[in-house]
Write a structure and sequence with these properties.
Layout: H1 4-36, H2 40-60, H3 65-81, H4 85-98, H5 102-118, H6 122-139, H7 142-158, H8 162-179
Helix pairs in contact: 1-2, 2-3, 3-4, 4-5, 5-6, 6-7, 7-8
């Protein structure tokens, strides 16, 4: 038989889950609406609502490494969209530090680099891309190196640094030969 105290625990857990789920729905919907909004004040207020919701979720659930990392990334992504890179970087770095393997760290760094590039923050994109590059180079992960060299070459070209763009394009060709 289930005692009343066990029922209370189950009810409380269910209520917490419902709160977390509702907050997550508000956060993701606000972020998606913000992504589509053209007017900056309205877009920023939607992102602020998403940040508030994600922040409450983070306070509610300090357990579950992957869940927590995903929420931290969501918050950092919104800061990037708001061009608040100085607030996004420490959050991304926290997720990178939480990862156990070097491959996981490099994978997160690559994703962060792509997010920065998409927002036009090329120096941040290059910084994270080069960190991932160093890890993949040590691991001799030629598939990832080819992809990352292409990415870095494109960014350097966008920044009118043709010498660096060509350097990474040549490295990409070298790594492609090692794959075959």
């Amino acid at each position: 038989p289930i005692s009343m105290s066990k029922c209370d625990v189950i009810i409380k857990a269910t209520e917490e889950y419902k709160k977390r789920y509702a907050l997550y729905a508000i956060a993701t919907l606000s972020e998606k609406m913000g992504n589509k909004e053209k007017e900056k004040p309205r877009r920023d207020s939607l992102y602020a609502l998403a940040l508030d919701s994600y922040s409450i979720i983070l306070e509610m659930d300090q357990k579950g490494e992957n869940f927590l990392d995903n929420q931290i990334i969501n918050v950092a992504d919104i800061y990037v969209k708001l061009d608040q890179f100085e607030k996004a970087a420490p959050l991304y770095n926290k997720v990178i530090e939480n990862k156990r393997s070097q491959s996981e760290k490099a994978m997160v760094m690559t994703e962060v680099a792509k997010k920065y590039e998409k927002q036009g923050s090329y120096d941040n994109a290059i910084g994270y891309g080069l960190k991932a590059f160093a890890i993949y180079e040590k691991q001799k992960d030629y598939n990832e190196l080819v992809s990352l060299c292409s990415f870095l070459s494109k960014i350097y070209y966008t920044k009118d640094n043709n010498q660096k763009a060509e350097e990474y394009a040549k490295k990409m060709e070298e790594y492609e030969k090692k794959i075959k």
